[in-house]
Amino acid sequence: MALVDGGALTLRVAETFPLEETAKAHARLAEGGVRGRLVLIP
């Protein structure tokens, strides 16, 4: 966290999904072409 807070590490979030849409997030990842992370929100 210190590296992120200090700007030494950057995080790229491609999309966010609620936990109820985990299957949709997995399908999106399987499609390919995702630049960044898919984040599941509780």
* Overall outline: elongated
Sketch the major β-sheet: 2 strands, parallel
Euclidean distance between termini CA atoms: 20 Å
Strand order of the main beta sheet, please? 1-2
Describe this structure in words.
By secondary structure, the chain is an alpha+beta fold. The protein contains 2 helices and 2 strands. It has helices spanning 2-5, 22-31; strands spanning 13-18, 37-41. The protein has a two-stranded parallel ribbon. It is elongated.
Short description:
By secondary structure, the chain is α+β, with helices and mostly antiparallel strands.
Quick tags:
2 helices, 42 residues, elongated, alpha+beta, 2 strands
SSE topology:
Layout: H1 2-5, E1 13-18, H2 22-31, E2 37-41
Parallel strand pairs: 1-2
